[in-house]
Amino acid sequence: MQNTAVWINRGDYRQTRVVKTEVEPLADGQARVEVEKFALTANNVTYAASGDLFGYWQFYPTGEDLWGSVTVWGIARVLESVADGIVEGERIYGFFPMSRYVTLEPGNVVAGGFDDGASLTASHCPHFTTTMPDLGQILRRWRPWRTRGVYISRCSLPAL
């Protein structure tokens, strides 16, 4: 399976690059989601402009210093899972890279959502790695799509 992602030149946000890579097999405890929709707003420009200051470029590293992955808020469907409590076919709302597929390491799985247990999350911003079941309940009532809830991943603010 091949992934397609959009990378941004970290020094000149007007330059983009479409990158295709092979998707790695899942390890124990991981889930793969397919991003169905995401929003592009003025916030995404802020994520790029403050990428080094607040660590946005480290949420989904590209492996190339010149190029970064700008994060977006979006909706994804779980394609496959070897993570406890994450069911294939579920829809989730969260913080993703601009790519077709994303591999997550779900942790703190509760009825209202989960957090991404990737090592970066805990070290970068531990107070934003908690799930938000109340927001998940609101989203299920407010929006026409059925989501399990919210997952907050690789949060953007430094620890207070």
Structure description:
- There is one protein chain.
- The protein is α+β, with helices and mostly antiparallel strands.
- It has helices at 42-49, 51-54, 119-124, 133-142; strands spanning 2-9, 16-22, 31-38, 67-68, 71-81, 91-97, 101-104, 106-110, 113-116, 150-152.
- It has one domain (2-152): Alpha-Beta Complex (Quinone Oxidoreductase, Chain A, domain 1).
- It has four helices and ten strands.
- The strands form three sheets. The protein has a four-stranded antiparallel sheet, with no helix packed on it.
- The radius of gyration is 15 Å and the shape is globular.
Give keywords.
single chain; 160 residues; alpha+beta; Quinone Oxidoreductase, Chain A, domain 1; four-stranded antiparallel β-sheet; 4 helices; 37% strand; globular; disordered C terminus
